[in-house]
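Worked example (supplementary).
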Amino acid sequence: MKYVDEFRNNEHVALLATAIKNAATRPWTIMEICGGQTHAIMKYGLDQLLPPGITLVHGPGCPVCVTPLVAINKAIAIASLSDVIFCTFGDMLRIPGSEKDLMTVKAEGGDVRTIYSPLEALELARQNPEKQVVFFAVGFETTIPTTAMAVYQAEKLDLKNFRLLVSHVRVPPAMEAILASPENRVQGFLAAGNVCVVMGYREYLPIAQRYRVPIIVTGFEPADILQGILLCVQQLEQGRFVVENQYGRAVKEQGNITAQEMVNRIFKIVTYSWRGLGEIEMSGFKLNPAYADFDAENYFATAHIKTKEHTGCQSGKVLQGILKPSECPSFGTLCTPEYPLGATMVSSEGACAAYFAYRRRQNEQSTISKSV
Amino acid sequence: MCLAIPGKILSISDQPDNYRSGDVNFSGVIRSVNLAYVPEARENDYVVVHAGFAISVLDQTEAHASLAAFDELKNTLDQIP
Amino acid sequence: MTLENDPACPLPINQYEKIVMAHGSGGRQMQQLIDTLLLTSFDNAVLNEKNDSAVFEIGNSRLAFTTDSYVVNPLFFPGGDIGKLAVCGTLNDLAMSGAHPLYISCGLIIEEGFPIESLQRIVKSMSYHAKNAGVEIVTGDTKVVEHGKGDGLYINTTGIGLLETPLKITPPMIQAGDVILINGDIGRHGIAIMAAREGFTLDSPLKSDCADVSGLVRLLISAGLEIHCMRDLTRGGLATSLVEISASANKHLEIYEQDIEVPDSVRGVCELLGLDPCYVANEGRFVVILPESQAAEAIDLMRSHPLGENTVLIGKIHAATSGMVTMKNRIGTNRIMELLSGAQLPRIC
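After joint prediction of all chains, the assembly is encoded as:
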């Protein structure tokens, strides 16, 4: 695949890994806040190529891990209604609410559909005027323009049966919340490349300055991520803290203005609660008053659904990089992939699940080498 | 966040701006993609696509520059004693 | 666990009260259902081997016995139809134990309103593929269910074959140092079905790899190679079959990404939807695990057969204390392959 394969080239990956080894003279802790980057790091085992001193922390970059429990419970409540077609991205299907997940709702007869684009939900609304079609609008700034367009088109079509259950979030406030925490260990960031395709990276400039952390806008292929780490390490070694754009083939400093305009037209920014991180100001989205009719929470009775996040699971601290999964008292004992306590162990990309697999491989290899 | 891959625009529909769409080829899979957010995109451009929408026209010059920079590392690393 | 009933705790559902789609997709939930309900209820030595076919002795003969039910949408797809699937799938299962397939049964559950013309096409297809393989469909059953209760057609086929080799072909026979061969590329069936169902346009149309590999297997058996294990790759793909084998064999299976062929359009669809080709269904591919010393001969033999032209070595077996599958990535790092929880879902994250 053009512009994909070239960034998975072995030789480049090896060169970058060596460059990182040569550049790092001290331990550094770097966080990526992007589910896609976390996925790539785990799939390609990129952490295996880094020198021991470089710690990668998997931040709150995936809706699977950060969508608040109350939003999932609301989704389940709505999806369970008989006149609803509930549309969701595949990522959300198995995330547990307080009692069940969307997959169970489907098993119980709910009409739950996995879609690839919000426009598919729109099309379902057009084809099924007798049903309420509700789209679970999760995702970061990359996805919000796609949801916004669906609402824009729905309004033009004067659709009366299309609703959004909104749970969109934005990255910079979460980054600040992590950096502002007195327990923060993160020294540098890889910023989510595709988020920056839409938003540009100007909003990261004051963050880098205020907290004195390098922020590298990074792509998703192995060479991208390694180069992002290299640039970050080089800045850390030199005591610099600026925003650099590694993903120049897709990201411009100002981002995608057309997309930003549509988002601003449809949504406004509000305070929102993230799973594990709690309430973060100006980090969530709500439909503007002109589009309030499309808000599922204005149509369905969901206000009574309140949920307390469980305090036993430590995934919030893990997502902030304050705690390593192996430092959690429940890790590997009460909490395993088979019987997980929280999202970071449920999700195959979750930091805790990743640690668990890594530890298993380590144990197996050390057992074999002992017996040889 | 977020899965987005580059594909090549084969054709663009003659539709008003927000409904502008095109057929994009991803390694042999051809999908209809909304091009509203890339008004500057033309046939044969590569676009980065997420959830059925093109969010950026891929800058091929930058892409080649990135790859050249990786190759350049060979020389830099060779010079390290 | 005290946390189980706490409504605030997002305790993920391991024990579903109702059957969900994941229970049929070849992943973790299906394994759990089989292990905790079916194996414990039926409990016997033959079943507990968890092979594709049950192998047992009657008199002086060793027989292989297998059953499979076929549920596919659409019923007609590029490269085949549900009838072809139903016959080839069962032939393949028998072949995986080294058996020579002899007889098949055919159970049809037909939905009221299903076009007879479609049924004719499917039955003709079954007849054709059975004859091609030299097997006879000797018994069957037909049921009709009310409209809305059947998805068109479900087929169950059960097969019996004769073991003409004294070899025990089963995961516990696998040795450290053995190698893993596969008879071609991966992902065609699952992606062909998905493309047909979702209406993807592919610039070079993809056909399912659905095929009867029993003839190819017979070549290997006749050559007297010391085959330790074979498994056909169906739901859950290459990775799932290898994880199951590793668990039964208590060995570490290591595969090499660069040697695993993935057709371009399979790759394209997988990249687009965030799917991993290693977990995509196949219907005409199988792995053979045998001593390294016999690999070259096996590869040559398999490549001489139309269904084995692209046979390649993809991995090696290491000693271990418990089952594990790792893949060495193209870039030289290692990844543990696990069972999926349910079917692979397209993702945007």
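Two points are worth noting when inspecting this output. The two ends of chain C are 32 Å apart (CA to CA). The CA atoms of residues 24 and 349 of chain C lie 25 Å apart.
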